[in-house]
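seq:
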Amino acid sequence: MYSHQTESNELAARGVEVGIYLAGLDRKLNPEDDGFFFWLPRDEKLNFKLEVRTPRLHSVRVIVVQGKSKKISSKKDETPESDIASYRRTIPTEEVVSAMEESYSTKPKNHNLRVVVIKDRTFELWEISIVTLIMGERANYHLVIQKTYSANMYRKDGRIHVSENEFPGYSTWSDLHNLLEEMVDVQTLDKFAGETVATKNGFELSGNIGRVIFFNLSNMWGFVQTAQGPAFLHWRQILDCEDFPMKEAGDIIEFEGLLNDSQERQRVLGVRSAIPVAAGG
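struct:
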């Protein structure tokens, strides 16, 4: 289960602090442990201000990632004369076009900041976002902090190499390649010795049992491995978490069924936590 305090404390241990405000006001809002900090009627529009404060260290960068292109831009430091750097982003709510009734929500394209942290020979990519969950007539707003990736860095052919086993899709992040090489001296890294063989989990997938591959809290969706192959998981299909529906990578779940959607992908329906079944047991 997601704990805002736990994630916030882990990020603070890297020297990074997060604040959320109503746009135009200086009053800081205090999230509860599931990240909930504010609600409005679903048809009311409001802007928030997200602030990330970091020490002035070469090992920490605050960035914005642009959509599917994964183009990276660094945020401007708003307090260049201070000992602590401050990065801010206005987070708007926008009309939900597909909703049956007028609704406003934050959108993944502009509701977050990301933080890259270098620790020894590893790097972490954190995502800090304001997520909207529309529940009946209410729009509930949550401040979500999630370490989306953590991976070892190696030296290969004079460049930084990251294993696809640790960071699936890393090869498509060309701007991230360049950013890491600005932050890290490649020659200090160990030489890449080849991919390691992934170990198998001690359970089998069959029937309506699945394992969560990942669940992105910023987008509130993820994928589940099932006996029939990977299946898309949307937060509205999670039935056993009322306030902040989510799952974590590695969670074993049971589901009511699978449905092929308009994008010709499987969707998993009616998800609850399950006790894993031991392989061969």
